[in-house]
């Protein structure tokens, strides 16, 4: 489990996070949602240690991550996998080399063991026969899958995904969401996803954290979204008139039922 | 102004301190170092040979013009071409050219990795990014650039020979006699000292510019330009200091 306690972050004079206290649970897909500029990306980067909080603490289990030195932080990071918004695959390496990179860097596995692990990860994300291709030779959806395969190759305890569906068509986005959810359940890892995607919220939101103007505005799960009377949540989720009409129809139907 | 320069200097020292930490896996660093040696060495060989050839030729032609009508024997042209290329032109011009070619390339490569979140991805994996991205480049440059400089010096002397002997300005024997006259092996040591110092400057400064790049393509372009400009200035400054100390 990951806990944030009263996390503040300021850049120069601007306070981006204003005391966020929340929890992210193992075996669940934890979603950080919010409008652009709300501070969710900063929160995600603080969680993985790419940004240092001005004040506040981050706990990985019982370990206070924000109090660790660089060496100790690296030990925790060995348990972390991350999928970046743009996949962040290394251009000069093939798909196989990208996935093998963490194994080459941190394990003493034999060549054969590494090849088996790479194959298993590619199979897990339903990709085959792309081993020798370069990132520029595969589609955006495939790049995301390779990114996921690289993130899980060291069997992490924590998986972070920054906007995993950005730039993908709705069908591919659903496939990526389901993949992340299945991996989370299979491996019982703590997954934290930063997303704008309403489909993700309603489909895989086991624990949803809404950040608004740097503060925690709402917390709950996907089943509580429709019934919630939280104005900030409703304004965010049902921002478009189309979704507002859908919500009204759904509520009407549930009242009739 | 001064505090800004001190800030950059401090951050540069911190990056270099981190870069010199113990590698996570020596084999990966070795692999990256050999890749960089190939990029820097083989990738720059043609331009270094071309430039050196013409520098040797121009030096010979210019000195031939200067010595014309004087009492200085013409075979001195070979001696002057040899010493001026070994002491100054080969290490300095080669490294100034490499700052433009290799330095800007390193800065853009690392800066691009920063912008495309590759460095963040490595950090999260637990990789010491300053070490993995900077150290192999520095080691590769320290090995390969002195070799390039030695080749440049040799080719320059050949350039001078071609410009003098093929045009009939000087006989083969006179040029060779000049090249073999008054040789001091300390000059070769100075050439290699310069090459090593310049190689360190151009790689570390270029990597620094790329490693801390922020923003978009305009900033990446600026970082690449700064890499070349600051490397060139520091190389010339170091050239003066080494010349003062070793002569």
Oligomer: heterodimer
Helical fraction of chain B equals over 70%
Domain unit count of chain B: 1
How would a crystallographer describe the biggest sheet of chain A?
A: 6 strands, mixed
Give the amount of beta strand of chain B, in percent: under 5%
Uncertain residue segments of chain B: none
Number of strands of chain B: 0
How would you describe this structure to a colleague?
The complex is a heterodimer of chains A (257) and B (247). In chain A, 42% of the residues lie in helices and 24% in strands. With 257 residues, chain A is of the alpha/beta class. In chain A, helix 3 packs across helix 4 (111-124), helix 5 (140-152) packs parallel to helix 6 (170-187) and helix 6 packs parallel to helix 7 (198-204). The radius of gyration of chain A is 19 Å and the shape is globular. In chain B, 85% of the residues lie in helices and 0% in strands. Chain B has helices at 2-19, 26-67, 76-115, 118-125, 129-165, 172-179, 185-211, 217-246. The longest helix of chain B is centred in the N-terminal third of the chain and has 42 residues, at 26-67. The radius of gyration of chain B is 21 Å and the shape is elongated. Chain B starts with a helix and ends with a helix. The chains are: A alpha/beta (257), B mainly alpha (247). The interface between A and B is medium-sized, with 23 and 15 residues.
Q: What's the layout of helices and strands?
A:
The complex is a heterodimer of chains A (257) and B (247).
Chain A (H helix, E strand, L loop, with lengths): L1 E10 L2 E11 L4 E5 L6 H9 L6 E6 L2 E2 L5 H8 L2 E4 L11 H12 L4 H14 L15 H13 L5 E5 L7 H18 L2 E6 L2 H7 L2 E6 L2 E6 L1 H4 L5 H7 L3 H16 L1
Parallel strand pairs in A: 3-8, 3-9, 6-7, 7-8
Antiparallel strand pairs in A: 1-2, 1-4, 4-5, 9-10
Helix pairs in contact in A: 3-4, 3-5, 4-5, 5-6, 6-7
Chain B lengths: L1 H18 L6 H42 L8 H40 L2 H8 L3 H37 L6 H8 L5 H27 L5 H30 L1
Helix pairs in contact in B: 1-5, 2-3, 2-5, 3-5, 3-6, 3-7, 3-8, 5-6, 5-7, 7-8
């Amino acid at each position: 489990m990951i806990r944030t306690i009263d996390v503040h972050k300021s850049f120069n004079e601007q306070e981006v996070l204003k005391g966020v206290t929340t929890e992210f649970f193992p075996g669940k897909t934890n979603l950080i949602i919010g409008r652009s500029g709300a501070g969710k990306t900063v929160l995600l980067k603080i969680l993985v240690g790419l940004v240092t909080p001005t004040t506040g603490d981050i706990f990985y289990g019982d370990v206070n991550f924000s109090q660790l030195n660089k060496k100790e932080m690296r030990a925790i990071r060995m348990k972390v996998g991350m999928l970046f918004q743009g996949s962040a695959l290394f251009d000069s390496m093939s798909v196989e080399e990208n996935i093998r990179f963490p194994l080459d860097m941190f394990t003493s596995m034999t060549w054969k063991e590494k090849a088996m692990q790479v194959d298993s990860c590619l199979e897990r994300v339903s990709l085959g026969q792309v081993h020798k291709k370069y990132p520029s030779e595969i589609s955006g959806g495939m790049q995301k899958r390779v990114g996921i395969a690289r993130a899980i190759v060291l069997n992490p305890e924590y998986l972070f995904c920054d906007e995993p569906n950005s730039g993908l068509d709705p069908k591919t986005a659903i496939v990526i969401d389901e993949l992340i959810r299945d991996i989370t359940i299979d491996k019982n890892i703590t997954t934290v996803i930063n997303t704008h995607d309403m489909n993700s919220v309603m489909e895989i939101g086991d624990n949803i954290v809404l950040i608004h103007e740097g503060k925690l505005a709402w917390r709950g799960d996907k089943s509580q979204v429709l019934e919630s009377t939280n104005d900030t949540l409703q304004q965010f989720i049902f921002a478009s008139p189309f979704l507002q009409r859908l919500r009204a129809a759904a509520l009407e139907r549930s009242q009739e039922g | 102004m001064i505090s800004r320069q001190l800030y950059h200097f401090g951050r540069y020292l911190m990056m270099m301190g981190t870069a010199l930490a113990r590698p996570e896996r020596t084999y990966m660093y070795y692999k990256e170092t050999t890749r960089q040696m190939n990029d820097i060495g083989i990738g720059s060989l043609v331009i270094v040979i071309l430039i050196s050839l013409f520098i040797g030729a121009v030096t010979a032609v210019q000195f031939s013009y200067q010595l014309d009508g004087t009492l200085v024997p013409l075979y001195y042209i070979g001696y002057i071409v040899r010493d001026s290329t070994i002491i100054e032109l080969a290490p300095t011009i080669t490294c100034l050219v490499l700052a433009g070619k290799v330095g800007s390339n390193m800065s853009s490569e690392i800066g691009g990795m920063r912008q495309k979140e590759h460095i963040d991805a490595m950090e999260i994996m637990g990789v010491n990014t300053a070490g993995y991205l900077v150290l192999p480049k520095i080691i590769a440059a320290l090995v390969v650039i002195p070799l390039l400089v030695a080749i440049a010096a040799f080719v320059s002397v050949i350039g001078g020979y071609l410009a003098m002997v093929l045009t009939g300005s000087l006989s083969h024997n006179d040029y060779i006699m000049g090249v073999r006259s008054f040789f001091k092996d300390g000059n070769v040591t100075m050439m290699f000292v310069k090459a090593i110092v310049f190689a360190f400057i151009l790689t570390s400064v270029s990597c620094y510019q790329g490693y801390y790049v922020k923003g978009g393509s305009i900033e990446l372009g600026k970082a690449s330009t700064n890499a070349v400009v600051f490397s060139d200035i520091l190389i010339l400054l170091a050239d003066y200091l080494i010349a003062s100390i070793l002569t």
